[in-house]
Amino acid sequence: MFKRSLLVSSVLLLTACGGGGSGNIGGTGGGTAVTAPDWTAGVFPAESNFKNYCATPRTGADPYNNNRPFPDRAGTSMHEKMWLRSWSNNTYLWYRELPDNNPANFSSVLAFFNQLKTDELTDSGAEKDNFHFAQNTASYRQQTQSGVSSGYGISWSFGRTTPPRSLLVAYTEPDSPAANANILRGADLLEVDGVDFVNDNTNAGVNKINAALFPATAGQQHEFVFLTHAGETLTVTLTSADVASSPVQNVKVLETNAGKVGYLQFNSHIALAQPQLISAVNSFAEANVTDVVLDLRYNGGGLLALASQFAYMVSGDAIIQDRIFEKTIFNDKHPNRDPVTGRPLLPMPFYSFEIDYEAQELTSNPLPELNLNRIFVLSTGDTCSASEAFINGLRGIDVEVILIGDKTCGKPYGFYPTDNCGTTYFTIQFSGANAKDFGEYADGFYPTPAPTFAADVQGCNVADDFSAQLGDPQERMLATALHYAANNSCPLGVTGQRFSQQQRPDDGNGLSIQRHDPRMRAFLLENKLNQPLKLHADQQP
What we know:
With 541 residues, the chain is α+β, with helices and mostly antiparallel strands. It folds into 3 domains: 13-144, no CATH class; 148-244 and 505-535, Pdz3 Domain (Roll), CATH 2.30.42; 248-422 and 431-487, 2-enoyl-CoA Hydratase, Chain A, domain 1 (Alpha-Beta Complex). It is built from 12 helices and 32 strands. A hairpin with a 2-residue loop joins strand 15 and strand 16. Helix 6 runs parallel beside helix 7 and helix 7 runs parallel beside helix 9. The protein is globular. One of its GO terms (molecular function) is endopeptidase activity. Residues 260-411 form the Tail specific protease domain. Residues 495-514 are annotated as: Disordered. This is Peptidase.
């Protein structure tokens, strides 16, 4: 049994966040007392030669690393670019497909990083790597470690991002400015600070919209006009605040025709979720639930170790029987050893103990178990990465996953978020496979009553429903899961029709954007009619 036999420090940093994008972060200047390194095509010096040599070194103590001094040293932007080049050549999963362009020809560090990715396509014609992005390190650590970010506590669902725009409230964080203003799921944004959100396409209007939607700091005040699902106009003035994320919400036990069914909304695989998931599982165990409906429709991923822990809590020792959760596969330069930690490659177990995520080690506190051999998962195109690994890991040990909703995002990949000079970079470094060696779901898991292909999952293809609140038994996706639990089949009228192309957010030019993608969370609306939106990434997915 994989209990505490593996060193958890080698896996805790493995991250599976959905998303991609680019941003105006990273140094562009040069130090005057340091000579910039030279580039030679095809020659890749060890990345350690350039690591932490920064155009603008940070000073003082790092509050997210036990107040140790920052490792930065005086360098140049060329040092930062050369580090990215060697680091990518060493660890990028598809390093053979990277261009080797002269870093000096790029105006900024981030511009150089943006092109350090493959431009190959999947079998369906989608981008092979749609998950390449960077983020300010301080913002990333604040969000992942404390769950705090500046805003109103609204998670948005984007329909169209060019006029006529469509932006709905997916859910709100408890005790946030939005929740306290009684802004409910399904509210449709009409106006921002007097600007017509749906149709305005002027420079001034777009700037106002962006300033209001994505406040950089707390204390900013803006007026919003919504059309509620009841058809009423709601005008509210919201003041941005440092909002704490609640990754687990709406935990409840439902009395149904199938018996007692546990439901929980799980929004993000961050460390803060661990005690909340444990509490939810304990409440389900006390109620003797016979089924669980896990709402992952807006969960863009996060820590793989947490996905492993929750998969253990669902199944338990008797079902797992020493089988693995996921094996990690790096590029062919590293068949046996993790290139980041240097440790031998060992499969990730189903972690059965609580994890101290700050110290990056297992504790002696055992996790609760539900001992279920079936679980219902609600999904959309925003269900990504660690959420998909959860599905895949359980399928690998023959726990029946019933998928209700839409096709998932398709990210069987992950990375070690890596800081250099105040920017954290995310580049695909590994793929994952379950205990049956399956990991080929780059085009997503697809729910269908009649599975045909390897990535098809038994279930029902149902569009997201904004007419009801999450956790309401009448909400379409949850109602479908409850029907299936009672009848072992999809409701009448639910077919194998694929909703993905109609329902997933699109900018009108074929650009599919995920709500948890950092591009989506901090995008710039394009001010030219019918042009794709410009994107940057300075917030955590």
